Amino acid sequence: MARRAHYQRLIDSGQVICPRCGLPIERGQPWDLGHVVPHALGGTFERDGDQPEHAYCNRAAGGRLAHTLAAPPRRPGVVPSRRSWL
User: Fold this and answer.
1) Phi, psi angles (nearest 5°) of residue 76
2) What percent of the chain has pLDDT over 70?
């Protein structure tokens, strides 16, 4: 809780820029603590830290990462059959 309170004070004073989109995080906007190295890629809170990000930016990045990790590897020039899409 201390970290969120610290970052909230910085956000309220207008000193925080979202590292994902480059726009300031305004007072009243929803925000999350994003990890510099995502947990899915081996990051840890203690080693890799965190950073305030817009909630939308953080969750969109997590969705893109999940999609990338879940996608089966594709062979170049091979089009999957329609049955494999179902």
Assistant:
1) -60, 135
2) 67
Q: Which amino acid does the sequence have at 79? A: V
Residue 24 in tokens: 């300031």
> Which has more confidence, 60 or 44?
60
Give a three-class secondary structure readout of the chain.
CHHHHHHHHHHHCCCCECCCCCCECCCCCCEEEEECCCHHHCCCHHHHCEEEEEHHHHHHHHHHHHHHHHCCCCCCCCCCCHHHHC
Flag whether the pTM goes above 0.85: no
- Measure Cα distances from 17 to 48, 63, 71, 73 in Å: 19, 21, 31, 35
How does the average pLDDT of the chain come out, rounded? 79
| 44 CB neighbour count, 10 Å cutoff | 10
